[in-house]
Each structure stands twice: as C-alpha cells, then as structure tokens.
Amino acid sequence: MSSTVIQVDRLSKHYRLGQIGGKRLVDDVSRWWAKLRGQEDPLSKVGQAALGGRGKREESREGKNLTSSLSPLRSSGEAPLSPLSPLRSSTSETLWALRDVSFEVKQGEVLGIIGRNGAGKSTLLKILSRVTAPTSGEVRVKGRIASLLEVGTGFHPELTGRENIFLNGAILGMTKAEIRSKFDEIVAFSEVEQFIDTPVKRYSSGMTVRLAFAVAAHLEPEILIVDEVLAVGDAAFQKKCLGKMKDVAGAGRTVLFVSHNMAAITTLCTRTLVIHRGTLRLDADSAVAVRDYLGLSGPSRAEVRWNDNEEAPGDELLRLRAIRVLDHDGYASVYHQSSSPIRVQFEFDLHQVEPALHIGFDLLSADGVKVLRSFHNDRLSEAASSMRLGRNVINCELPPNFLNAGTYLVSPTIGIHMVRWIVSVESIVQFDVEFTHGESKFVNNPERRKHGVIAPVLIWNSSAD
Questions:
Q1: Mean pLDDT, the chain, integer
Q2: Residues 266-294: b if buried by 16+ CB within 10 A, e if exposed
Q3: How far apart are CA 360 and CA 373, in angstroms?
C-alpha cells in the first residue's frame, strides 16, 4: 500500500470578521497572554466571554482537546444551522472557515476537492501550502509541495517572465541549476516565448497563469496543489494542464485539485472530498462525490421560490423570485418524458431597465457536464421585448425529442452582458427525464437511453433524393 504523504487531523481555522487586531499593541499582547494562560479574552464584549467559557466547560466534560477558543457547534448549545446560514459563532464576529476536517492522502493519489464558493476549499489549500496557519488541529506533510493557488502568486509585476521563472522557482524550492535545466521546457509549455523578456505586469491573466502553472508543474514536486486558477486559461491550455497533471500523478507524485469543472474532477481524480460550510461533508469515489455535490443525494426540487426580498438572489436592478421546471401541462414536476416539451420558467422583479440584461441558465447533466447555456435574447422573441418594470415571468422551452434519459440540473445565470453577473446560482433545481422518443429507442439497449449527452431525432435522407 502506498505511504501516506498528507495527514490532516481535526483541522480548524477561524477568522475574526471586520478586525485584524487590537487598536494598540498592548491589546494584542494582553489577548495573547490570556489565551496562553487559558483565560477569557480580556477585550471581549459583555456576554461573549461567558459564551466562550460555557463552551469550554462543555467541551471539557465531553473529554475533547481544548485547541480552540470556541466550542464546537454541537456542544455549545447553539441552534442548528439553517441551510443558508453562514458558519459563524453567535457573536457574529468569528467565521469558521474550516471545522474539524480530517483526511489522509496516499502517495501517487489524485485527490479532488469540491464545494461551493466560500465552503473553505482555498483556506484548506493555503494551510496545506503553509501560506496560513490553522487555528487548531495538525497537518503532517511528507515531501516538497508546489502550489498554484492564485494567478500571479510569487510573481513580481516589474520583473520579466524570464526573471520571474527564476524567482518563482526559488520560492517553490528549486535550485538555480534545476531552473536552468528546465527553463526551455517551462517556456515551451507556457507558450509565452515571444514575451519571455517582457515585464509580467503587461501580461494578461491567462498568460500569467500559463507561466505560473508551467513553473509549478516542472518543479517535479512530491505534491502538486492546484486551485481553480486553471479556469483563467483557454480551453486548449486547460486540456494541456490536465494532461500534465495526469503525467505528474503517473510518475508517482500526489496531486490535490480544486475545480468547479465536475467533468475534470471525475476524469482526473479517483477520490474526491466535498467541503460544505467549512466541514468535510463526504470523502468518497469521485462519481459519488460529484453526485452529492450536485445535490442528487437529496430530494429533487422542480421549483424554488424566494419570498423575502433580501434573501432573493440579485441586486438593485433585478431580484429573482422563482425558478421552476414545468411539464407540458404547465405543472412544476421533477419527472418528464423526453418526447414532451419541458419548460424552464423564471419569475423575477425588474427594478431598472437595462438593454444589455441577459436572463438565462446552464443545463447540466448528472456528472456535471454542461449540456447547454441559453439566454432569453438569443433569438428575438416576445420574451425579449415585453419585459417591464415590476414582476415578470418568462419561459424557455426545451423541445421534445431532444434530451436523453437521466437527471439534469438548472443553474440560473443572469447578468449584464460583458459587465457583471447579477445572479449565478449553482444547480438550484433538478429534474429527471425518461427516454420515450424515437422508433429505435430500446433496441438492444437495456439502459433505456441512447449513447451521448443528448438524444435528438435527426433527419436522414437518401443521396438519391
């Protein structure tokens, strides 16, 4: 069995919101001295210290190691978290980015890490990369780590690409001789030969991430950590990077890969962690983890409504009030036949007129593959021209004889074209499709579906016609 190269034991990290330190050095020193002696924070607000003390006493009664100034939520007497509440203490000043996370990674393993934005993925990688320290818990790492966490990390904008290769390589632990021996490979992989002697401040974000990944990938580390930065590159470069990570893993090295691209996760990673609100929700096979992340393990929802204006996704221009999937009779349903039309309906409040407004959605398959993206103004229609201030309802119809059997997810994407996103919510409604169209639909096919992501009925003609 392969040896363990990363061992994470009850890792936790919390941040104090809106405040970096005390107003005076003496305040920070007094807080540090009180924490060292196991006493209450001398500068805490009234009631805050009492809560912390009660949590510690309860945690002590349960026989747990007192490594955190706050007790776990399960022992502090707090109410359970609501589905949309942040993982904060009741003082509203502390945010737990990670809470009691434990796992192991074997040598040569490709581990995926997925979760929604703000779940704690990047915090975990920063702790593993020793960029930041944990509040409590332990991390044991065996081997040299190369990390690619943010575009341009370790790059100096005033230095050229050539100079930054040597600088970034040194930061990552490469010797000058190693960098020189691999310099030509790094430049060739990054595809920025023409600009290698140009200051990095003049690079685009895509060029910067190309060079940064090339340096990290050619370091030949025992452990390679890659965050979502590959999303900056174009499709061809992303494919090239995934191939390089496969080569790194094939050479017996370990890869930790964070991505929102579920197809890349299932293709590259044999095992995946699902991080949810700072906790480790699931550690499983990648296919199982992706299904859990996309919400397939929970109850299907064909309709989501927001009655509270503050909770409704959007801003001062538009508020999304509901999104639903309707059958051919106009009822919200999670079960549909492929031979019937399926409608995706948006209900929203429009507060300002914006000609560049785009209202649409991504349709994803069960394994996270994006089947299509559609916007209301892809084709001039009544829906594109009749929107008015106030409440609006618009529909997009998926034609019959088009979708294959399976489970599909809808992610609303609303924004101002080439300016900003207003609403971008992942996999908020889902529905199932039974394959019922086409004369050859079940011939020699016990799975009751056609091969491929979609199953349109195409027109075939004889060449003699």
A1: 79
A2: bebbebbbbbbbbbbbbbeebebbbbbbb
A3: 7
Q: Report the range of poorest mean pLDDT among 68-77, 230-239, 283-292, 406-415.
A: 68-77
Task: Let me know how long the chain is.
Answer: 465
**What is the chain's Cα-based Rg?**
26
CA distance 287 to 110: 14
Backbone φ and ψ for 62, nearest 5 degrees, come out as -80, 0
CA-closest candidate to residue 271, choices 288, 293, 291, 259? 288
Decide if 166 contacts 172 (C-beta within 8 A). Answer: no
Structure tokens at 4: 């363990």
Q: Give the bridge partners for 394, in sequence order.
A: 346
Task: Give the three-state DSSP class for 448.
Answer: coil
Cβ neighbours of 114 (radius 10 Å): 28
In the three-class reduction of DSSP (H, G, I as helix; E, B as strand; rest coil), residue 164 is classed as: helix
Phi, psi (deg, nearest 5) at residue 211: -70, -40
Tokens 């929604």: give the residue: 116
HEC sequence for 314-354: ECCCEEEEEEEEECCCCCECCEEECCCCEEEEEEEEECCCC
Domains in the chain (CATH in brackets) are 103-293 (3.40.50.300), 303-434 (2.70.50.60)
CB 203 within 8 A of CB 249: no
β-partners of residue 146 are: 224
- pTM metric for this prediction: 0.59
Given a cut of 70, whether residue 58 has pLDDT beyond it is: no
Number of Cβ within a 10 Å radius of residue 412? 22
Q: How many CB atoms lie within 10 A of CB 217?
A: 24
What is residue 363's three-state secondary structure?
strand
